[in-house]
Write a structure and sequence with these properties.
The chain is an alpha/beta fold and 289 residues long. The chain has two domains: 91 residues, Leucine Dehydrogenase, chain A, domain 1 (Rossmann fold, 3-Layer(aba) Sandwich); 125 residues, NAD(P)-binding Rossmann-like Domain (Rossmann fold, 3-Layer(aba) Sandwich), CATH 3.40.50. Helix content is 40%, strand content 15%. The chain has ten helices and eleven strands. The strands form three sheets. The protein has a six-stranded parallel β-sheet, sandwiched between helices. Strands 3-2-4 form a three-stranded parallel β-sheet, sandwiched between helices. Strand 5, helix 7 and strand 6 form a beta-alpha-beta unit. It is globular and about 50 Å long. The N and C termini lie far apart (39 Å).
């Protein structure tokens, strides 16, 4: 039976550290503040917004919401982000994506200053994954994966890790963060031969899957002793959310496994709050010991 790598203890440990940062800021009469910018009314966005707002406010982080219609003009959206960039009282910004296809997404995202880019939507933040000390922050889900692995003391230096999924939101940045920790990383994508992917997964010490395909990782992909992190979330025919990992097949075999839901997703909103507090600390020239 695998150890369940649940997200709640990881989130709570992060929150304890966050409260120290919020207290330090408020001792300087600064309230860490995040701006949420949402275009339209996608159910997934609304759900995440509610969860994050609740988490942020419980930690003493102020939330300012800008809600825009689905047909908002590109110029208006850029102006909103430019105003956020210039507002010293706002320390971070969450813009829900994907944006409507008619909008020039790179142009819109580029309107936000990197110092307030708490979910790595600007090219400066993504490039900062390669350069220590650069402005911006890594994508929250990628950072949540790393926080979870760190909390449960999953060793990475010198270990073989297979990253299933190469998207810019999770797969690619997570692979870079893993390499920064000294892991040897293989990345699989939709073009990887299924047999070869299964072979690579079986040879790994750690498997992280962010493909968004329910049941992709099954018994043929795993062996005893592995840690498996399931990032993928997709609705099944039963209407419930399912991960990339076929839990009933994999859980009896591997050493450790994240559940879906209750795994990485439970950490992501706390990481976003952590990035907001860190951005506020940086703006004040402060740092926690």
């Amino acid at each position: 039976m695998a150890q369940l790598l649940t997200g709640a203890p990881v989130a709570e440990a992060l929150c304890a550290r966050l409260r120290e940062g919020v207290a330090l800021l408020k001792s300087r009469e600064v309230t860490p503040t995040v701006a949420i910018v949402r275009v339209g009314e996608r159910p997934a966005d609304l759900s995440y917004e509610r969860g994050f707002t609740k988490r942020a406010q419980s930690l003493g982080i102020a939330v300012i919401r800008t809600l825009l219609p689905e047909d908002v003009g590109e110029g208006e959206l850029i102006q909103v982000l430019e105003e956020i960039s210039g507002n010293r009282r706002i320390h971070g910004c969450l813009l829900f994506r994907p944006l409507p296809p008619r909008l020039n997404t790179p142009a819109v995202m580029g309107a936000l200053c990197p110092e307030k880019d708490i979910d790595s939507m600007t090219s400066t933040s993504m490039g900062g994954l390669m350069v220590q000390g650069a402005a911006g922050f890594p994508p929250c889900t990628a950072a949540a994966c790393m926080a979870l692995l760190g909390h449960y003391r999953v060793e990475l230096p010198g270990r073989n890790v297979v990253m299933v999924g190469s998207g810019m939101t999770v797969g690619m940045p997570t692979a870079i963060l893993l390499m920064n920790q000294g892991a040897t990383v293989s990345v699989c994508n939709i073009f990887t031969d299924p047999g070869r992917m299964a072979e690579l997964c079986r040879s790994a010490d750690v498997i992280i899957s962010a493909a968004g395909k329910a049941g992709l990782i099954g018994r043929d992909h795993v062996r005893p002793g592995q840690a498996v992190v399931d990032v993928g979330v997709s609705p099944g025919p039963d209407g419930k959310l399912h991960g990339d990992v076929a839990f009933d097949q994999v859980e009896p075999v591997v050493a450790a496994l994240t559940p879906v839901p209750g795994g990485v997703g439970a950490v992501t909103s706390t990481v976003l709050a952590a990035h907001t507090v860190e951005a506020a600390l940086r703006a004040q020239g402060l740092a926690l010991e």
